[in-house]
Amino acid sequence: MMIRIDTGGRLHTYFPDKSFATVSRGTSLTTKIPSSDYRPDIDGLRAVAVLLVVFYHFDPDLVTGGFIGVDMFFVISGYLITGIIVKGIQAGNFSLVDFYVRRCRRILPTLFTMLVVIFGLGWVVLLPDEFRDLGKETLAGVLFSENMLLAKEAGYFDVEAVRKPLLHLWSLAIEEQFYLFWPLTLLLAHRFRIKLPTVSFALMRLSFIFGAYYALTHSVAAFYLLPSRFWEILSGACLFHMESRLPNTIRGRTYQNAKAFVALIIILGVSLLFRTFIIFEDAIISLSWLSLIWASFSCLAAILLISAGQNAWINRRILSSPPLVFIGRISYPLYLWHWPLLSIAYIMGDEKPVLVARLSIVLLSFLLAWLTFRFIEQPVRNPSSPFFRARFVGISATAAAVVISTLGYCAFSQTGFLGTSLGANTLQFDDIDQASIQPLLDREWWKKNQLKDTLCEKSFWKPDHADPPICRLTDLSPRVMLLGDSHVNHLIPGLISVNDATFSHIVEVSNYDKEFVENAISDKNIRYVIISLYNKHFINLEEVTSRFLYKNLLQNIELLEKAGKQIIFFIDIPTLDVNPLRCLNVRRFSLTSRDRMLCARSLTEVLAEQVTMRRMITDLAKQNPKMKVFDPTPAMCDKNYCYAIRDKKMLYRDSDHLSVDGSIFVARAFMASMKK
Known about the structure:
The protein is an alpha/beta fold. It is built from 29 helices and 11 strands.
């Protein structure tokens, strides 16, 4: 998944600065910059950054830390935009209106073109719930609030990052928020005679400190929001202020070559060795400090390369080479096009596209980037073009924003002619109940009905100092506490459905919190504690972390048993390993063929995956003989295979979580075992 910073799904994209090719070439601006100030090496640095991200999205195992391109571009943006603003202020001819018009001219035509094309493509190929999500992202993209949307939505049951075609606009949102905030800040500082470098350095330090703290308390929000990312942009601003103050003795070619060489080593090391330092696969957002350290290194590399200038051989010969300069000039449209196309290809196949498909998409992205640059960006930015006029920019930008926002709203609200996609559902297999498929196709159902409720949110069960994504309370006097992660949450619909006097009265917060355990100990109504954890945690844990998890579980089980609670440890369900949509013919357009056997996995393979988990649970049971263990495998598997479809019901809603029908199926098997 993606943090995956996967993600996310879940989570590693960037947005190139969008204004500097025109600025550096001295086009008609309020702040005149002579052509001699043009830095081809900065275009080359843009190319390096965008290629890192494209290669990362092409295959995360190829460039494991390629997402650092976002940090590098934040530095470039801060450096060049601050230069434009400060030089204009010092010359006395800086205009906010002119600044914003030029940002609109640079950003909006390409962005709006991409949004319309991807919306149309989504209308044709996506399923209704996927199209609804695209509408929500489209609306957020127009409003430059994608980062806020992602910070709010991220969680266990959110759609994985690779299934969000417009996820990459989070960094564009940060840049736009920076554009709105920074010129006003510098103008006010100048008005009150506060030194501009002082403002930049002070805010950079404050943002870094805030980001470090916020990453520990709200890691997802810290990853996506401007206040905790602002220091990266301001590091470029501070570089601009510092350049004129550096003594001539450290501007020699040898010194600059050394800086560029060190920067190159940092970029190669950070981009290629990142996963070596990860304990949980695709867990960058949760590893807050590691993410902060990585961002610091990548920002340092960008600062070193920019400050090295044309005196450095790497800048002069490599970054300033025509191929990299060309890629740098089309980096903005390249970034905008490549991710939505890869994402939609993933969605259409319900799996990672094959190598040939991904390679074709990347090549198509380069072609679309050049076409967009040549026939949209350049005409709009040409001073002799009628499209260049400020009035035309304002009217056309407003009209386009209204139209695209309306399209996004219609899709999100599922209203109007374009409110529902053409993705009609037709089932290929007649042994599957149609009603069983609908919750699978409607990803919003689980969020609305199973994640949290107001009753639990306001109760003493929710720890005061935590903000867990899941909180359920089915009775004011629950008899059963569910402890674990999303793989205990998906048991709730089934336990409720059995309508048992004990097991249908539940409290669950998917946050392994000591205070939560203490509440269960003190509540005499709680008779049972059901524990379940995702098997992948056990597979991916390193030895030290595995021992910590075992120790933590053992300690809590002993505390709960001393309080008279009956512990029941649910062994995790078999992992399906593919999106269950692959089992069915539910897409009008698909990049993969449907295979009935995708709905079954070898029992031997499943048991091999669960060796570590089963061994740990066995050891816990030996330490606590009163603890009961329930294994759903016999109910879901025969002697050879484990099945995703039983009794004409789809048991999975994704590759490793139970659907509502699956939850009911497992709950009935559990209740039958309790009666033995």
